[in-house]
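Subject: Sanity check before I submit

Could someone independently write out the C-alpha cells for this chain? I want to compare against mine line by line before I put it in a report. The sequence has 140 residues.
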Amino acid sequence: MKTIGVFLIGVSAAVVVAGQAARTVWDGVYTDAQAARGKTLYVNHCAVCHQEGLQGADLAPALKGEEFLLQWSDRTMFELIDRVATTMPQDAPGTLTPQENADIVAYVLQVNKLPAGAGELPSDAATLKAIAITKQAAAR
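---
Independent answer below. Compare away.
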C-alpha cells in the first residue's frame, strides 16, 4: 500500500504542475524602465549592424516583426538571451553584462509590442528558462 500511496502523490503533483500555465512573453516580463535602459544600450552596441529601427541589414537579422517572432517562437527567453550574450556584439561577443543583455532584450520585446509588466526581465538562467517566447498570447 505504501507504494501505491507514494505513486498517487507523485501523480497528483505531476497533474498540478502540468495544469499550471507556462509564463510567456505576453505576461509582461520586463518593465518600461528596463526597456529604456535597453534602448540606450541597443543604440550603442547593436544598431550599427541591426539598424536603429531593428530592421536588420545584410547579415544581421531583423529583431522585430513577424519574422523575428517566428524565428524565436516556441523557444525560451534563456535561449534568446544566451544567443545575445555569447554572440553579440559581433565585434566583441560576450562583453556585455548579463543585466545589459536582459535590458537590450527587454527593449526588443517592447519594440515588438509585447506588454510590459511590474517586474524586470531577469538575467538568471532558471527564471529565463521558464519564460516561453510565443507568437501569440495563450488563450486562458
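---
OP: Matches mine. For the report I'm noting this point. Residues 2-21 have pLDDT under 50 and may be disordered.
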